[in-house]
Automatic annotation (TrEMBL):
It is an enzyme of class 3 (hydrolase). Has oligopeptidase activity and degrades a variety of small bioactive peptides. GO terms for biological process: peptide metabolic process; proteolysis. CDD domains: M3B_PepF. It comes from the Bacteria. Its cofactor is Zn(2+). Gene3D superfamilies: Oligoendopeptidase f, C-terminal domain (1.10.1370.20), Oligopeptidase f, N-terminal domain (1.20.140.70), putative peptidase helix hairpin domain like (1.10.287.830). This is Oligopeptidase F. InterPro entries: OligopepF_N_dom, OligoPept_F_C, Pept_M3A_M3B, Pept_M3A_M3B_dom, Peptidase_M3B. Keywords: Hydrolase, Metal-binding, Metalloprotease, Protease, Zinc. Binds 1 zinc ion. PANTHER family: PROTEASE M3 THIMET OLIGOPEPTIDASE-RELATED, SACCHAROLYSIN.
Length: 601
Protein backbone atom coordinates (compact mmCIF):
# COMPACT_ATOMS: atom_id res chain seq x y z
CA UNK A 1 0.00 0.00 0.00
CA UNK A 2 1.29 3.48 -0.87
CA UNK A 3 2.34 5.77 1.95
CA UNK A 4 -0.49 7.94 3.27
CA UNK A 5 0.15 11.66 2.89
CA UNK A 6 -0.51 13.22 6.28
CA UNK A 7 -0.83 16.83 7.33
CA UNK A 8 1.95 18.24 9.55
CA UNK A 9 1.17 19.31 13.08
CA UNK A 10 1.46 23.00 13.83
CA UNK A 11 4.84 22.53 15.53
CA UNK A 12 6.20 20.81 12.41
CA UNK A 13 5.55 23.80 10.12
CA UNK A 14 8.72 25.83 9.36
CA UNK A 15 8.53 29.13 11.22
CA UNK A 16 9.14 31.18 8.07
CA UNK A 17 5.88 29.81 6.67
CA UNK A 18 3.87 30.96 9.70
CA UNK A 19 2.54 34.41 10.49
CA UNK A 20 4.32 36.37 13.20
CA UNK A 21 1.59 37.10 15.71
CA UNK A 22 4.19 38.09 18.30
CA UNK A 23 4.05 41.47 16.55
CA UNK A 24 0.57 41.75 18.06
CA UNK A 25 1.15 40.18 21.49
CA UNK A 26 4.46 38.56 22.40
CA UNK A 27 2.83 36.59 25.22
CA UNK A 28 -0.58 35.95 26.76
CA UNK A 29 0.22 38.12 29.79
CA UNK A 30 0.19 41.16 27.48
CA UNK A 31 -3.11 40.02 26.05
CA UNK A 32 -4.68 39.71 29.48
CA UNK A 33 -3.26 43.10 30.52
CA UNK A 34 -5.04 44.73 27.58
CA UNK A 35 -8.16 42.77 28.44
CA UNK A 36 -8.10 44.34 31.90
CA UNK A 37 -7.58 47.80 30.39
CA UNK A 38 -10.71 47.33 28.34
CA UNK A 39 -12.68 46.22 31.38
CA UNK A 40 -11.50 49.35 33.22
CA UNK A 41 -12.49 51.54 30.26
CA UNK A 42 -15.95 49.98 30.23
CA UNK A 43 -16.38 51.13 33.83
CA UNK A 44 -15.17 54.61 32.89
CA UNK A 45 -17.66 54.84 30.05
CA UNK A 46 -20.50 53.95 32.40
CA UNK A 47 -20.01 57.35 34.05
CA UNK A 48 -21.23 59.02 30.85
CA UNK A 49 -24.52 57.16 30.78
CA UNK A 50 -27.35 59.67 30.62
CA UNK A 51 -24.96 62.56 29.91
CA UNK A 52 -24.30 62.50 26.16
CA UNK A 53 -26.85 65.25 25.57
CA UNK A 54 -25.48 67.38 28.43
CA UNK A 55 -22.72 69.19 26.55
CA UNK A 56 -20.40 69.06 23.57
CA UNK A 57 -17.54 68.19 25.90
CA UNK A 58 -19.37 65.23 27.43
CA UNK A 59 -20.28 63.94 23.96
CA UNK A 60 -16.68 64.24 22.73
CA UNK A 61 -15.16 62.52 25.76
CA UNK A 62 -17.70 59.70 25.69
CA UNK A 63 -17.16 59.20 21.96
CA UNK A 64 -13.38 59.05 22.30
CA UNK A 65 -13.62 56.54 25.14
CA UNK A 66 -16.26 54.46 23.31
CA UNK A 67 -14.00 54.17 20.25
CA UNK A 68 -10.92 53.46 22.39
CA UNK A 69 -12.71 50.48 23.92
CA UNK A 70 -13.54 48.97 20.55
CA UNK A 71 -10.10 49.73 19.14
CA UNK A 72 -8.39 47.79 21.92
CA UNK A 73 -10.99 45.03 21.86
CA UNK A 74 -10.60 44.46 18.12
CA UNK A 75 -6.88 43.86 18.61
CA UNK A 76 -7.63 41.34 21.36
CA UNK A 77 -10.31 39.59 19.31
CA UNK A 78 -8.28 39.38 16.10
CA UNK A 79 -5.30 37.89 17.94
CA UNK A 80 -7.44 35.28 19.67
CA UNK A 81 -9.23 34.39 16.45
CA UNK A 82 -6.04 33.97 14.43
CA UNK A 83 -4.34 31.91 17.13
CA UNK A 84 -7.38 29.65 17.25
CA UNK A 85 -7.57 29.40 13.45
CA UNK A 86 -3.95 28.27 13.11
CA UNK A 87 -4.85 25.15 15.14
CA UNK A 88 -8.49 24.70 16.10
CA UNK A 89 -7.62 21.61 18.17
CA UNK A 90 -5.48 23.64 20.62
CA UNK A 91 -7.50 23.91 23.84
CA UNK A 92 -5.52 26.91 25.09
CA UNK A 93 -6.47 29.01 22.11
CA UNK A 94 -10.03 27.72 22.11
CA UNK A 95 -10.18 29.15 25.62
CA UNK A 96 -8.65 32.44 24.49
CA UNK A 97 -11.20 32.69 21.70
CA UNK A 98 -13.96 32.06 24.23
CA UNK A 99 -12.60 34.79 26.52
CA UNK A 100 -12.52 37.24 23.61
CA UNK A 101 -16.11 36.34 22.71
CA UNK A 102 -17.23 36.84 26.29
CA UNK A 103 -15.46 40.19 26.44
CA UNK A 104 -17.15 41.25 23.21
CA UNK A 105 -20.54 40.37 24.65
CA UNK A 106 -19.81 42.35 27.79
CA UNK A 107 -18.67 45.38 25.78
CA UNK A 108 -21.77 45.28 23.60
CA UNK A 109 -23.96 45.08 26.69
CA UNK A 110 -22.23 47.89 28.60
CA UNK A 111 -21.87 50.27 25.66
CA UNK A 112 -25.35 49.78 24.20
CA UNK A 113 -26.50 53.04 25.77
CA UNK A 114 -24.09 55.09 23.65
CA UNK A 115 -25.89 54.80 20.31
CA UNK A 116 -29.32 54.93 21.93
CA UNK A 117 -28.52 58.24 23.64
CA UNK A 118 -26.68 59.59 20.60
CA UNK A 119 -29.62 59.11 18.23
CA UNK A 120 -32.04 60.79 20.63
CA UNK A 121 -30.07 64.03 20.92
CA UNK A 122 -32.28 66.71 19.45
CA UNK A 123 -31.01 67.76 16.01
CA UNK A 124 -30.82 71.43 16.97
CA UNK A 125 -28.83 70.60 20.09
CA UNK A 126 -26.63 68.23 18.10
CA UNK A 127 -25.85 70.92 15.52
CA UNK A 128 -25.04 73.33 18.33
CA UNK A 129 -22.57 70.83 19.81
CA UNK A 130 -20.80 70.49 16.45
CA UNK A 131 -20.52 74.25 16.20
CA UNK A 132 -19.24 74.64 19.76
CA UNK A 133 -16.47 72.05 19.55
CA UNK A 134 -14.52 71.66 16.32
CA UNK A 135 -13.09 68.32 17.46
CA UNK A 136 -16.53 66.76 17.13
CA UNK A 137 -16.54 67.48 13.40
CA UNK A 138 -13.97 64.73 12.87
CA UNK A 139 -16.75 62.31 13.80
CA UNK A 140 -19.48 63.86 11.61
CA UNK A 141 -20.01 60.88 9.28
CA UNK A 142 -19.62 58.46 12.19
CA UNK A 143 -22.42 60.28 14.01
CA UNK A 144 -24.61 60.49 10.90
CA UNK A 145 -24.25 56.75 10.32
CA UNK A 146 -25.26 55.84 13.87
CA UNK A 147 -28.08 58.38 14.02
CA UNK A 148 -29.55 57.07 10.75
CA UNK A 149 -30.64 53.90 12.61
CA UNK A 150 -32.85 55.79 15.06
CA UNK A 151 -36.13 54.09 14.09
CA UNK A 152 -34.57 50.65 14.51
CA UNK A 153 -33.10 51.12 17.97
CA UNK A 154 -34.80 49.90 21.13
CA UNK A 155 -34.52 51.31 24.64
CA UNK A 156 -31.26 51.16 26.58
CA UNK A 157 -32.53 48.27 28.66
CA UNK A 158 -33.75 46.29 25.66
CA UNK A 159 -30.54 46.83 23.68
CA UNK A 160 -28.49 45.78 26.70
CA UNK A 161 -30.50 42.59 27.07
CA UNK A 162 -29.95 41.72 23.40
CA UNK A 163 -26.26 42.52 23.64
CA UNK A 164 -25.91 40.34 26.73
CA UNK A 165 -27.24 37.43 24.69
CA UNK A 166 -24.46 37.86 22.10
CA UNK A 167 -22.77 34.56 22.91
CA UNK A 168 -26.10 32.76 22.72
CA UNK A 169 -26.87 34.33 19.34
CA UNK A 170 -23.39 33.37 18.16
CA UNK A 171 -23.72 29.73 19.21
CA UNK A 172 -24.93 28.35 15.82
CA UNK A 173 -21.89 29.72 14.01
CA UNK A 174 -19.53 28.45 16.71
CA UNK A 175 -21.14 25.01 16.57
CA UNK A 176 -20.76 24.92 12.79
CA UNK A 177 -17.09 25.96 13.01
CA UNK A 178 -16.19 23.35 15.61
CA UNK A 179 -18.06 20.61 13.79
CA UNK A 180 -16.68 21.50 10.37
CA UNK A 181 -13.10 22.45 11.27
CA UNK A 182 -12.29 20.28 14.27
CA UNK A 183 -14.70 17.38 14.80
CA UNK A 184 -15.42 15.98 11.33
CA UNK A 185 -13.16 13.07 10.45
CA UNK A 186 -12.67 12.60 6.72
CA UNK A 187 -11.42 9.30 5.28
CA UNK A 188 -8.29 8.55 3.31
CA UNK A 189 -8.97 8.67 -0.44
CA UNK A 190 -7.05 7.64 -3.51
CA UNK A 191 -5.36 10.39 -5.48
CA UNK A 192 -3.56 10.22 -8.79
CA UNK A 193 -1.07 7.40 -9.26
CA UNK A 194 -2.86 5.53 -6.44
CA UNK A 195 -1.45 7.88 -3.82
CA UNK A 196 -3.28 7.64 -0.50
CA UNK A 197 -4.35 11.10 0.65
CA UNK A 198 -5.96 12.19 3.89
CA UNK A 199 -9.08 14.03 2.77
CA UNK A 200 -9.64 17.53 4.17
CA UNK A 201 -11.38 20.65 2.92
CA UNK A 202 -7.99 21.83 1.71
CA UNK A 203 -7.04 18.67 -0.18
CA UNK A 204 -10.60 18.30 -1.48
CA UNK A 205 -10.38 21.40 -3.66
CA UNK A 206 -7.09 20.15 -5.09
CA UNK A 207 -8.51 16.70 -5.81
CA UNK A 208 -11.45 18.20 -7.69
CA UNK A 209 -8.93 19.78 -10.07
CA UNK A 210 -7.53 16.33 -10.95
CA UNK A 211 -7.72 15.29 -14.60
CA UNK A 212 -8.71 11.80 -13.43
CA UNK A 213 -12.50 11.63 -13.13
CA UNK A 214 -12.33 8.71 -10.70
CA UNK A 215 -10.16 10.77 -8.34
CA UNK A 216 -12.66 13.62 -8.50
CA UNK A 217 -15.59 11.27 -7.97
CA UNK A 218 -13.95 9.51 -5.03
CA UNK A 219 -13.17 12.76 -3.22
CA UNK A 220 -16.65 14.14 -3.93
CA UNK A 221 -18.47 11.09 -2.63
CA UNK A 222 -16.23 10.68 0.41
CA UNK A 223 -16.62 14.31 1.44
CA UNK A 224 -20.41 14.30 1.20
CA UNK A 225 -20.73 10.88 2.81
CA UNK A 226 -19.04 12.46 5.83
CA UNK A 227 -21.19 15.57 5.83
CA UNK A 228 -24.34 13.56 5.15
CA UNK A 229 -23.82 11.60 8.35
CA UNK A 230 -24.45 14.83 10.23
CA UNK A 231 -27.17 16.29 8.01
CA UNK A 232 -29.70 16.75 10.80
CA UNK A 233 -27.13 18.46 13.03
CA UNK A 234 -26.14 20.83 10.23
CA UNK A 235 -29.80 21.54 9.46
CA UNK A 236 -30.49 22.32 13.10
CA UNK A 237 -27.46 24.57 13.32
CA UNK A 238 -28.29 26.50 10.15
CA UNK A 239 -31.93 26.83 11.16
CA UNK A 240 -30.88 28.28 14.51
CA UNK A 241 -28.69 30.81 12.71
CA UNK A 242 -31.58 31.85 10.46
CA UNK A 243 -33.89 32.17 13.46
CA UNK A 244 -31.38 34.41 15.23
CA UNK A 245 -31.13 36.72 12.23
CA UNK A 246 -34.90 36.84 11.69
CA UNK A 247 -35.52 37.50 15.37
CA UNK A 248 -33.00 40.33 15.59
CA UNK A 249 -34.41 41.93 12.45
CA UNK A 250 -37.97 41.65 13.75
CA UNK A 251 -37.32 43.19 17.15
CA UNK A 252 -35.44 46.05 15.50
CA UNK A 253 -38.44 46.81 13.26
CA UNK A 254 -37.01 45.67 9.94
CA UNK A 255 -39.23 43.98 7.38
CA UNK A 256 -36.72 41.15 6.95
CA UNK A 257 -33.29 39.94 7.94
CA UNK A 258 -32.09 40.87 4.46
CA UNK A 259 -33.28 44.43 4.86
CA UNK A 260 -31.51 44.66 8.22
CA UNK A 261 -28.27 43.27 6.83
CA UNK A 262 -28.18 45.60 3.82
CA UNK A 263 -29.21 48.61 5.89
CA UNK A 264 -26.02 48.26 7.91
CA UNK A 265 -24.11 49.46 4.83
CA UNK A 266 -26.91 51.64 3.41
CA UNK A 267 -27.31 49.34 0.39
CA UNK A 268 -30.69 49.50 -1.37
CA UNK A 269 -32.37 46.10 -1.51
CA UNK A 270 -32.80 46.67 -5.23
CA UNK A 271 -29.06 45.96 -5.62
CA UNK A 272 -29.69 42.40 -4.36
CA UNK A 273 -32.79 41.91 -6.51
CA UNK A 274 -31.19 43.28 -9.66
CA UNK A 275 -28.23 40.95 -9.18
CA UNK A 276 -30.47 37.87 -9.09
CA UNK A 277 -32.53 39.11 -12.04
CA UNK A 278 -29.45 39.80 -14.17
CA UNK A 279 -27.86 36.46 -13.31
CA UNK A 280 -31.06 34.62 -14.23
CA UNK A 281 -31.13 36.52 -17.52
CA UNK A 282 -27.57 35.39 -18.29
CA UNK A 283 -27.86 31.76 -17.11
CA UNK A 284 -27.73 30.58 -20.76
CA UNK A 285 -24.07 31.65 -20.75
CA UNK A 286 -23.40 29.32 -17.83
CA UNK A 287 -25.34 26.52 -19.51
CA UNK A 288 -23.25 27.05 -22.62
CA UNK A 289 -20.06 26.84 -20.59
CA UNK A 290 -21.18 23.58 -18.93
CA UNK A 291 -22.00 22.19 -22.37
CA UNK A 292 -18.51 23.14 -23.57
CA UNK A 293 -17.04 21.16 -20.67
CA UNK A 294 -19.04 18.12 -21.65
CA UNK A 295 -17.79 18.32 -25.21
CA UNK A 296 -14.12 19.00 -24.52
CA UNK A 297 -13.81 16.51 -21.66
CA UNK A 298 -15.64 13.95 -23.80
CA UNK A 299 -18.05 13.08 -21.02
CA UNK A 300 -21.35 11.30 -21.40
CA UNK A 301 -22.55 13.32 -18.44
CA UNK A 302 -21.08 16.33 -16.66
CA UNK A 303 -21.17 15.71 -12.93
CA UNK A 304 -20.82 18.40 -10.29
CA UNK A 305 -17.35 17.09 -9.53
CA UNK A 306 -16.38 17.73 -13.15
CA UNK A 307 -16.82 21.50 -12.88
CA UNK A 308 -13.45 22.29 -11.33
CA UNK A 309 -10.94 20.38 -13.40
CA UNK A 310 -9.32 22.43 -16.18
CA UNK A 311 -11.00 21.44 -19.41
CA UNK A 312 -7.72 21.32 -21.31
CA UNK A 313 -6.10 18.91 -18.85
CA UNK A 314 -3.13 19.38 -16.55
CA UNK A 315 -2.15 22.95 -15.88
CA UNK A 316 0.67 24.17 -18.12
CA UNK A 317 1.40 26.67 -15.35
CA UNK A 318 2.40 25.88 -11.78
CA UNK A 319 3.85 28.09 -9.11
CA UNK A 320 5.57 27.32 -5.85
CA UNK A 321 4.91 29.81 -3.09
CA UNK A 322 8.25 31.56 -3.69
CA UNK A 323 7.62 31.75 -7.43
CA UNK A 324 4.16 33.16 -6.83
CA UNK A 325 5.55 35.89 -4.57
CA UNK A 326 7.99 37.02 -7.27
CA UNK A 327 5.38 36.98 -9.99
CA UNK A 328 2.82 38.80 -7.82
CA UNK A 329 5.16 41.76 -7.51
CA UNK A 330 5.32 41.98 -11.30
CA UNK A 331 1.54 41.77 -11.70
CA UNK A 332 0.80 44.40 -9.07
CA UNK A 333 3.39 46.87 -10.35
CA UNK A 334 0.54 48.42 -12.38
CA UNK A 335 -0.51 50.18 -9.16
CA UNK A 336 2.86 51.88 -8.75
CA UNK A 337 5.92 51.57 -6.53
CA UNK A 338 4.23 52.47 -3.25
CA UNK A 339 1.71 49.63 -3.52
CA UNK A 340 4.38 47.08 -4.44
CA UNK A 341 6.59 48.21 -1.58
CA UNK A 342 3.86 47.31 0.91
CA UNK A 343 3.30 43.93 -0.74
CA UNK A 344 7.01 43.24 -0.29
CA UNK A 345 6.64 44.27 3.34
CA UNK A 346 3.98 41.58 3.77
CA UNK A 347 6.33 38.95 2.34
CA UNK A 348 9.33 40.07 4.37
CA UNK A 349 7.64 40.43 7.75
CA UNK A 350 5.71 37.15 8.02
CA UNK A 351 2.24 38.58 7.60
CA UNK A 352 1.24 35.33 5.88
CA UNK A 353 0.48 31.90 7.35
CA UNK A 354 1.21 29.77 4.33
CA UNK A 355 0.69 26.01 4.51
CA UNK A 356 -2.01 23.68 5.77
CA UNK A 357 -1.49 21.91 9.07
CA UNK A 358 -3.57 19.59 11.18
CA UNK A 359 -6.45 21.49 12.79
CA UNK A 360 -5.88 24.68 10.81
CA UNK A 361 -8.94 26.51 9.60
CA UNK A 362 -9.72 25.74 5.99
CA UNK A 363 -9.74 28.21 3.12
CA UNK A 364 -8.04 31.57 3.03
CA UNK A 365 -8.68 35.06 4.36
CA UNK A 366 -7.16 38.43 5.15
CA UNK A 367 -7.46 39.56 8.76
CA UNK A 368 -6.08 42.14 11.13
CA UNK A 369 -7.32 45.35 12.65
CA UNK A 370 -6.38 49.01 12.93
CA UNK A 371 -3.34 48.38 15.17
CA UNK A 372 -2.03 45.18 13.55
CA UNK A 373 -0.62 44.16 10.23
CA UNK A 374 -3.21 42.98 7.68
CA UNK A 375 -2.42 39.28 8.06
CA UNK A 376 -3.24 36.57 5.52
CA UNK A 377 -4.16 32.92 6.15
CA UNK A 378 -3.55 30.47 3.31
CA UNK A 379 -3.59 26.70 2.93
CA UNK A 380 -1.05 26.66 0.12
CA UNK A 381 -1.01 23.99 -2.58
CA UNK A 382 1.36 24.53 -5.53
CA UNK A 383 -0.56 25.55 -8.65
CA UNK A 384 -2.24 28.42 -10.42
CA UNK A 385 -5.34 28.49 -8.22
CA UNK A 386 -3.36 29.23 -5.07
CA UNK A 387 -1.43 31.93 -6.91
CA UNK A 388 -4.76 33.59 -7.61
CA UNK A 389 -5.70 33.14 -3.95
CA UNK A 390 -2.49 34.85 -2.84
CA UNK A 391 -3.12 37.82 -5.13
CA UNK A 392 -6.78 37.92 -4.05
CA UNK A 393 -6.01 38.02 -0.33
CA UNK A 394 -3.22 40.52 -0.91
CA UNK A 395 -5.86 42.79 -2.44
CA UNK A 396 -7.76 42.63 0.85
CA UNK A 397 -4.63 43.27 2.89
CA UNK A 398 -3.49 46.23 0.82
CA UNK A 399 -7.01 47.64 1.06
CA UNK A 400 -6.71 47.35 4.84
CA UNK A 401 -3.20 48.79 4.84
CA UNK A 402 -4.14 51.88 2.86
CA UNK A 403 -7.32 52.40 4.86
CA UNK A 404 -5.64 52.19 8.28
CA UNK A 405 -2.78 54.44 7.17
CA UNK A 406 -4.99 57.17 5.70
CA UNK A 407 -8.04 57.26 7.96
CA UNK A 408 -8.56 57.87 11.68
CA UNK A 409 -9.79 54.89 13.66
CA UNK A 410 -13.48 55.79 13.33
CA UNK A 411 -13.15 55.39 9.55
CA UNK A 412 -10.28 52.89 9.59
CA UNK A 413 -12.20 49.90 8.28
CA UNK A 414 -14.12 49.41 5.05
CA UNK A 415 -17.74 48.27 4.77
CA UNK A 416 -18.43 44.64 3.92
CA UNK A 417 -20.15 45.62 0.70
CA UNK A 418 -16.87 46.74 -0.86
CA UNK A 419 -14.67 44.20 0.92
CA UNK A 420 -14.43 41.84 -2.06
CA UNK A 421 -13.77 44.47 -4.71
CA UNK A 422 -10.07 45.15 -4.18
CA UNK A 423 -9.29 41.44 -3.96
CA UNK A 424 -11.15 40.59 -7.16
CA UNK A 425 -9.64 43.53 -9.02
CA UNK A 426 -6.26 41.94 -8.28
CA UNK A 427 -7.49 38.64 -9.70
CA UNK A 428 -8.62 40.35 -12.89
CA UNK A 429 -5.25 42.05 -13.24
CA UNK A 430 -3.51 38.69 -12.89
CA UNK A 431 -5.74 37.19 -15.57
CA UNK A 432 -5.00 40.07 -17.94
CA UNK A 433 -1.26 39.81 -17.19
CA UNK A 434 -1.16 36.12 -18.01
CA UNK A 435 -3.20 36.50 -21.20
CA UNK A 436 -0.88 39.27 -22.34
CA UNK A 437 2.43 37.63 -21.46
CA UNK A 438 1.81 33.93 -22.03
CA UNK A 439 1.55 33.38 -25.80
CA UNK A 440 1.33 29.58 -25.83
CA UNK A 441 -2.24 28.81 -27.02
CA UNK A 442 -2.50 26.03 -24.45
CA UNK A 443 -1.60 28.46 -21.65
CA UNK A 444 -4.00 31.04 -23.08
CA UNK A 445 -6.79 28.46 -23.10
CA UNK A 446 -5.98 27.41 -19.55
CA UNK A 447 -6.07 31.02 -18.27
CA UNK A 448 -9.34 31.72 -20.09
CA UNK A 449 -10.76 28.54 -18.56
CA UNK A 450 -9.56 29.70 -15.14
CA UNK A 451 -11.21 33.10 -15.58
CA UNK A 452 -14.50 31.53 -16.62
CA UNK A 453 -14.34 29.19 -13.64
CA UNK A 454 -13.65 32.16 -11.36
CA UNK A 455 -16.61 34.04 -12.82
CA UNK A 456 -18.76 30.93 -12.42
CA UNK A 457 -17.72 30.64 -8.78
CA UNK A 458 -17.91 34.31 -7.84
CA UNK A 459 -20.90 35.54 -9.83
CA UNK A 460 -23.13 32.60 -10.76
CA UNK A 461 -22.43 30.39 -7.74
CA UNK A 462 -22.46 33.14 -5.13
CA UNK A 463 -25.73 34.48 -6.54
CA UNK A 464 -27.10 30.95 -6.27
CA UNK A 465 -26.01 31.03 -2.63
CA UNK A 466 -27.64 34.43 -2.20
CA UNK A 467 -30.91 33.15 -3.62
CA UNK A 468 -30.74 30.12 -1.33
CA UNK A 469 -30.00 32.31 1.69
CA UNK A 470 -32.98 34.50 0.92
CA UNK A 471 -35.19 31.41 0.64
CA UNK A 472 -34.22 29.87 3.99
CA UNK A 473 -34.89 33.16 5.75
CA UNK A 474 -38.25 33.53 4.04
CA UNK A 475 -39.20 29.97 4.96
CA UNK A 476 -38.50 30.56 8.63
CA UNK A 477 -40.20 33.96 8.58
CA UNK A 478 -43.38 32.35 7.24
CA UNK A 479 -43.25 29.49 9.78
CA UNK A 480 -42.31 26.80 7.26
CA UNK A 481 -40.14 24.20 8.96
CA UNK A 482 -36.54 23.90 7.77
CA UNK A 483 -35.37 20.30 7.84
CA UNK A 484 -32.43 18.52 6.28
CA UNK A 485 -34.80 17.12 3.64
CA UNK A 486 -36.58 20.39 2.76
CA UNK A 487 -33.34 22.39 2.66
CA UNK A 488 -31.59 19.78 0.52
CA UNK A 489 -34.50 19.50 -1.92
CA UNK A 490 -34.62 23.23 -2.54
CA UNK A 491 -30.85 23.46 -2.86
CA UNK A 492 -30.72 20.57 -5.32
CA UNK A 493 -33.49 22.04 -7.47
CA UNK A 494 -31.85 25.46 -7.46
CA UNK A 495 -28.52 23.92 -8.42
CA UNK A 496 -30.16 22.24 -11.41
CA UNK A 497 -31.72 25.52 -12.51
CA UNK A 498 -28.39 27.32 -12.39
CA UNK A 499 -26.26 24.74 -14.20
CA UNK A 500 -28.86 23.74 -16.75
CA UNK A 501 -29.70 20.66 -18.80
CA UNK A 502 -26.11 19.61 -19.47
CA UNK A 503 -25.37 18.88 -15.80
CA UNK A 504 -26.00 15.60 -14.01
CA UNK A 505 -27.45 16.77 -10.72
CA UNK A 506 -25.62 14.38 -8.40
CA UNK A 507 -27.71 13.74 -5.31
CA UNK A 508 -24.77 14.64 -3.05
CA UNK A 509 -24.73 18.24 -4.30
CA UNK A 510 -28.03 18.85 -2.54
CA UNK A 511 -25.99 18.67 0.70
CA UNK A 512 -23.51 21.36 -0.32
CA UNK A 513 -25.19 23.93 1.92
CA UNK A 514 -23.88 22.00 4.92
CA UNK A 515 -20.27 23.03 4.30
CA UNK A 516 -20.66 26.72 3.38
CA UNK A 517 -19.50 28.89 6.32
CA UNK A 518 -20.76 32.09 4.67
CA UNK A 519 -24.37 31.13 5.37
CA UNK A 520 -23.55 32.10 8.96
CA UNK A 521 -22.34 35.58 7.95
CA UNK A 522 -25.72 37.30 7.57
CA UNK A 523 -26.32 37.96 3.85
CA UNK A 524 -22.66 38.22 2.94
CA UNK A 525 -22.41 36.05 -0.18
CA UNK A 526 -24.17 38.33 -2.68
CA UNK A 527 -21.30 40.77 -2.25
CA UNK A 528 -18.87 38.34 -3.86
CA UNK A 529 -20.95 38.58 -7.01
CA UNK A 530 -21.45 42.35 -6.99
CA UNK A 531 -17.79 42.79 -6.05
CA UNK A 532 -16.52 40.60 -8.90
CA UNK A 533 -18.67 42.48 -11.39
CA UNK A 534 -17.54 45.88 -10.11
CA UNK A 535 -13.91 44.74 -10.24
CA UNK A 536 -14.30 44.11 -13.97
CA UNK A 537 -14.88 47.80 -14.57
CA UNK A 538 -12.15 48.88 -12.14
CA UNK A 539 -9.45 46.61 -13.59
CA UNK A 540 -10.20 47.87 -17.09
CA UNK A 541 -9.91 51.47 -15.87
CA UNK A 542 -6.60 50.78 -14.13
CA UNK A 543 -5.12 49.26 -17.29
CA UNK A 544 -6.13 52.04 -19.65
CA UNK A 545 -3.90 55.03 -20.42
CA UNK A 546 -5.58 57.40 -17.97
CA UNK A 547 -3.46 57.76 -14.81
CA UNK A 548 -6.36 59.46 -13.05
CA UNK A 549 -8.22 56.14 -13.05
CA UNK A 550 -5.45 54.45 -11.08
CA UNK A 551 -5.37 57.42 -8.72
CA UNK A 552 -9.12 57.13 -8.24
CA UNK A 553 -8.70 53.44 -7.45
CA UNK A 554 -5.98 54.08 -4.87
CA UNK A 555 -8.20 56.75 -3.33
CA UNK A 556 -10.90 54.09 -3.09
CA UNK A 557 -8.46 51.90 -1.12
CA UNK A 558 -7.76 54.82 1.21
CA UNK A 559 -11.39 55.83 1.76
CA UNK A 560 -12.28 53.26 4.42
CA UNK A 561 -15.70 54.03 5.85
CA UNK A 562 -15.38 57.81 5.53
CA UNK A 563 -18.44 57.74 3.23
CA UNK A 564 -21.20 55.24 2.44
CA UNK A 565 -19.99 52.41 0.15
CA UNK A 566 -22.25 53.33 -2.78
CA UNK A 567 -20.70 56.82 -2.75
CA UNK A 568 -17.16 55.47 -2.42
CA UNK A 569 -17.68 53.25 -5.46
CA UNK A 570 -19.18 56.06 -7.50
CA UNK A 571 -16.04 58.13 -6.87
CA UNK A 572 -13.95 55.14 -7.97
CA UNK A 573 -15.89 54.98 -11.25
CA UNK A 574 -18.62 52.37 -10.70
CA UNK A 575 -22.30 53.10 -10.03
CA UNK A 576 -23.59 49.94 -8.34
CA UNK A 577 -27.18 51.16 -8.24
CA UNK A 578 -27.23 50.76 -12.02
CA UNK A 579 -27.18 47.33 -13.69
CA UNK A 580 -24.71 48.56 -16.33
CA UNK A 581 -21.72 47.26 -14.31
CA UNK A 582 -23.28 43.79 -14.33
CA UNK A 583 -23.93 43.90 -18.07
CA UNK A 584 -20.28 44.86 -18.62
CA UNK A 585 -19.12 41.90 -16.54
CA UNK A 586 -21.32 39.43 -18.44
CA UNK A 587 -20.05 40.90 -21.71
CA UNK A 588 -16.47 40.10 -20.67
CA UNK A 589 -17.54 36.58 -19.66
CA UNK A 590 -19.12 36.03 -23.06
CA UNK A 591 -16.11 37.49 -24.88
CA UNK A 592 -13.73 35.16 -23.08
CA UNK A 593 -16.02 32.20 -23.58
CA UNK A 594 -15.92 32.98 -27.31
CA UNK A 595 -12.11 33.15 -27.18
CA UNK A 596 -11.89 29.80 -25.42
CA UNK A 597 -14.27 28.13 -27.86
CA UNK A 598 -12.18 29.49 -30.76
CA UNK A 599 -8.90 28.28 -29.25
CA UNK A 600 -10.26 24.83 -28.48
CA UNK A 601 -12.06 24.57 -31.81
Amino acid sequence: MAEIKKLPTRSEVPIELTWNLEQVYSNLDQWHADEQKVLNQIDELAAYKGKLASSATELLQATQLYLAIYRKYEKLAVFASMKNDQDTTNAKFQQLQSEADNLGTKIAEKTAFYQTELVHIDQTVFNQFLAENNKLQAYQHFFDDLRSAKEHLLSDAEESLLAAAGNIFGAPEKTFEMLSDADLTFPVVEGENHQQIQLSEGTYSKLLESTDQQVRKGAFEALYDTYGSFKNTFASTLTAQVQVQNYQAKVHHYDSARQAALAANHIPESVYDVLIEEVHKHLPLLHRYVKLRKKVLNLKQVHMYDLYTPIIGESPLSFTYDEAKTKALEVLQVYGDDYVQHVQEAFDNRWIDVVENKGKRTGAYSSGTYDTAPYILLNWQDGLENFFTLVHEMGHSMHSYYTTHHQPYQYGDYPIFIAEIASTTNENLLTDYLLENEKDPRVQAYVLNHYLDGFKGSVFRQTQFAEFEQWIHQQDATDNALTAESISKYYGDLNKQYYGPAIYNDSQISMEWMRIPHFYYDFYVYQYATGFAAATTLSQRIEDDDASHTTAYLNFLKAGSSAYPIEVMQKAGVDMTNKAYLDKAFAVFEQRLNQLEDLIG
